[in-house]
Design a protein that fits this description.
Shape: globular
CATH superfamily: Gamma-glutamyl cyclotransferase-like
CATH topology: Hypothetical upf0131 protein ytfp
Mean pLDDT: 93
Radius of gyration: 19 Å
Number of domains: 1
Largest sheet: 9 strands, antiparallel
Helix content: 25-40%
Strand content: 25-35%
Number of helices: 10
Length: 296
């Protein structure tokens, strides 16, 4: 992979170009404008269920139709991989570490496109080497703490590479509001074939990986081998964030309810506590995207 995917939407480029101080101000303004929303048990269940259900292996998603690669013949599987990963396809490899690996999330983001190619995506599940997956030190509007990477030499963590069209890539870049785009140079091994990649596009949180007891905590729902970080459930991570942002007696449910009912108030509390309990992403294997460098 040599070139960056084309991004030609001025507002998106402007957002990607924000320096950290400008970005924090941007997020704070957005959070202050979120109105109170209805909260119920289903809201909490969805928040702690992140990163949601996904197949154990690779798949091909076409609109609402899901095909598992392991259920295809070897010839069909090889053809599907070649068709979507060839230079002629115009697609690029984008690492999915959280909800973007779930078919329901991809269907929601892609199913409205008129072109069939833009409704179809190949999702190759495998192992990403020398990194682990924790959560960002910032909540989503639906109450979860979303996934982000942190360096972890020797670890091989389960992740998914999406082979996306330019249209799909732009859609995902818009949706990854609090993330920084870049390229990651490390090995990714596909489970169902001998295919591997040495470089992928990836989004990492601008807020860094949330630390518990001073170290990044891994998201327990995502398997890994040779993991050295403590692995915690989404609920336990929200418990830890709630204790910092609201008070020692607060739990995950308290925090998720507050996000729904008063996001404008919980934002500043996160800024002064949870945001500070984070490890900013840094790696010599990482090249951040900068507007104006799309042809490098």
């Amino acid at each position: 992979m040599s070139d960056w995917p084309p991004i030609d939407e001025p507002e998106l480029l402007e957002r990607l170009a924000l320096v950290d101080r400008e970005f924090v101000e941007f997020i704070e303004t957005l959070a202050s404008r979120v109105p109170p929303r209805s909260y119920d048990e289903a809201s909490f269940a969805r928040a702690i269920g992140y990163p949601w259900t996904r197949p154990a292996g690779s798949y091909l998603l076409s609109g609402a139709r899901l095909e598992l690669l392991e259920e295809l013949t070897a010839a069909e599987r090889g053809s599907a991989i070649d068709r979507h990963t060839s230079a002629e396809s115009g697609r690029q490899p984008l690492l999915a570490i959280g909800s973007n690996g779930a078919p329901e999330a991809l269907e929601r983001k892609f199913a409205h496109f008129p072109d069939e190619e833009d409704r179809t995506v190949l999702a190759l599940t495998g192992r990403l080497h020398d990194f682990d997956i924790g959560v960002a030190a910032q909540p989503t509007l639906y109450g979860s703490m979303p996934a982000t990477l942190f360096p972890s030499p020797g670890t091989a963590v389960c992740a998914t590479v999406l082979w996306v069209t330019p249209t799909q890539f732009t859609q995902l870049t818009w949706s990854e509001l609090s993330y920084r785009l870049g390229k990651l140079r490390t090995r990714f091994d596909v489970e169902e074939s001998a295919t591997s990649f040495e470089e992928v596009l990836v989004f990492v949180s601008r807020f860094g990986a949330f630390c518990v007891d001073g170290k990044p905590a891994a998201l327990a729902a995502i398997p890994a081998s040779n993991r050295t970080a403590s692995a915690l459930s989404q609920e336990r991570l929200l418990d830890a964030a709630a204790a910092l942002a609201i008070g020692p007696e607060a739990k995950a449910e308290t925090l998720v309810r507050a996000i729904f009912e008063d996001m404008a108030a919980i934002g500043p509390k996160f800024a002064g506590t949870v945001n500070r309990a984070s490890l900013p992403f840094a790696s010599e294997q990482w090249t951040p995207f900068s507007p104006g460098r799309q042809c490098e």
